Amino acid sequence: METHHDPVPNDKTSGWRGSREVWLDAARQALLESGLDAVKIQPLATRLNLSRTSFYWFFKDRTALLDALLQAWEEKNTGAFLDACAEYAETPSEAVLNLTGVFFDESRFEPQFDFAVRGWAHQSDAVMARVNRADEQRLAAITAMFERFGVEPVEADVRARTIYLVQIGYISMQVRESLETRMSRVPDYMAIFSGQRPSESELARFHARHGHVPAGGN
To answer: What is the pLDDT of residues 3-31, one digit of tens each?
Structure first.
């Protein structure tokens, strides 16, 4: 007899209905791949090889799923900004390197998730309000990061906006660059963003953190 292997994890926490995390991840993948219209209960059930009724063990309705999806986006992507801005740094350039590192690590910050949610916001005033709130939270965190180093509030705000709006522009334009190209630009970006070039040791730590060996390096 042929044994059917269900693609959904089958353990004590998920069982035959899947799990909240399984449904939520499927919704996120559908949003990223096909947009908001793909985030519907029956297509997700088909995608997961689960019954439609299984969905209701974890979510009241599609609206609850969409709200959970937005919450996951806020916790991951905005959370990454807040954590990076609060990391220890001895200099402004090191602080900006900490923040820049977020954009080199999709396990912390997912650019396509941001892109998809911003597209979704054009269809919903409520989602746009949450996106605007997230933008303000991120900008406030970057501004506070500069103010810790004695930067005056107006200058700190402008530097924060310079960093953030450049990065959101990268995401919105879906810019694709090689790691070597991105890394080669980091010292000059840091000089513009923070007002000082990073030291060799700061750059070395940044490269090591992201597994990058500069051309000609060991």
So the answer is: 333 344 443 334 568 899 999 999 999 99
Distance between CA atoms of 205 and 107, rounded to whole angstroms?
19
Same domain, 97 and 180: yes
Are 105 and 139 in a shared domain?
yes
Whether pTM > 0.90 for this model: the answer is: no
Q: Do 100 and 126 share a domain, yes or no?
A: yes
Q: What is the pLDDT of residue 115?
A: 96
- Domain with 15 in it: 11-59
Closest CA to 143 of 155, 134, 135: 155
Cβ-in-10-Å burial (0-12, 13-18, 19+) of 210 comes to middle
Is residue 19 within 8 Å of residue 13, measured between CB atoms?
yes
For the record, the structure tokens of 28 come out as 């996120």
Question: Token pair for residue 156?
Answer: 């700190």
Q: In whole angstroms, what is the distance from residue 63 CA to residue 99 CA?
A: 33
| Total residue length of the chain | 218
62 near 40, Cβ under 8 Å?
yes
pLDDT in tens, 55-94: 999 999 999 999 999 999 999 999 999 999 999 999 999 9
Q: Which of 182, 149, 146, 147 is nearest to 167 (CA)?
A: 182
Please report which residue ranges of the chain form alpha helices under DSSP H: 20-34, 41-48, 62-73, 79-86, 92-100, 111-121, 125-147, 153-173, 179-194, 200-209
Q: Tell me, yes or no, whether 161 and 72 share the same domain.
A: yes
